[in-house]
């Protein structure tokens, strides 16, 4: 492909700019606090698990074997403090007012709005702007890009993806982003990555772009993503009603038909943030994604799922801590290459790596386990981006480019190591 095709730079799309971010009718999180909780025994874990059943007042932000982060409603703060004192549970307040983080994010976005949609990755963009930019990318690079769709959401939105292919016969890499609505850093990073594949002049990025076919879905959970911009910044799930409850939506990353609802890896409570849905593939977004991937699985060698937050790289399995995948050693070798590369950047960001169940918690019915178990894609990872809890899901936009740059470094190393281990030989 001629070099001039990718020397255009950042694509500017002439669209009507959407400035609606958390409108006046949006849910507010005034004086909601986030606590880091150190768990020392099974009894303490059981107590915290019971608290989280009250989804109206407690929301899990992060969990690992010994530590959880929980957002707590101001209505139950005093009750919570009495309980942790009674049971000797060690806590640390890491966010004193969640609404202040949201307000700062809104102010950052408003200050940087202009008349055209130029994704400069200094703020977060709503779905309409991302799709407008994607349209312009497709027009600008008609010979090397192609739109694909993975179906319609519950509310009737088209879920768009982009394929980047410089030549025939390349092995394929699939990236899923923003399956959880509130994780805005994921779609910001995905769009930045798309731009790099098309515009970077660095030799190593050109090699990455031109020798692999890239299938990237910037926003999978489109309904939930729109809802976070307009009604509730911290919404996680889909927006499909549940027939047996007044609660809305399911956790799309617990809705895949792979060890669905096994080993406590998801909830059957429709009000829970990790509600698995009434049955596998109940959410049209997930059914559409799985149908699409099933149709091209012979072309996909690696699948990456972008998430936040925790700074960890996770491989299968999520449904069991004891059971390890057959190519566990290779999965860990490739993961180590990613983590070392991220740590080696000027940002020196530290990531951990391991299986999903081993490093974080049991999670069944997830994207990466489904792709690994049911589609024979033997390198699948969840990448949990910045940070470690200071901002959590409301990561300031100043982090977008640093997070994206270190992600690119990590993917370069991941692909290199995967190639050495012969996982990127053409499958078709």
Give me the strand/helix succession. EEHEEHEHEHEEEHHEHHEEHEHHEH
Question: Could you name the CATH topology of the largest domain?
Answer: Aminopeptidase
Count of structural domains: 2
Largest sheet: 8 strands, mixed
Instruction: Let me know the number of strands.
Output: 14
Strand percentage, roughly? 15-25%
Mean pLDDT: 94
Output the radius of gyration.
Answer: 21 Å
Protein structure class: alpha/beta
**Terminal Cα span:** 22 Å
Would you identify the regions where 5 or more consecutive residues have pLDDT less than 50? 1-8
Reading off the top of the CATH hierarchy, the class of the largest domain is best stated as Alpha Beta
**Overall morphology:** globular
What would CATH call the architecture of the largest domain? Answer: 3-Layer(aba) Sandwich
Helicity, as a percent range: 25-40%
Strand order of the largest sheet: 7-8-10-9-11-14-12-13
Q: Count of helices?
A: 12
CATH homologous superfamily descriptor of the largest domain: Zn peptidases
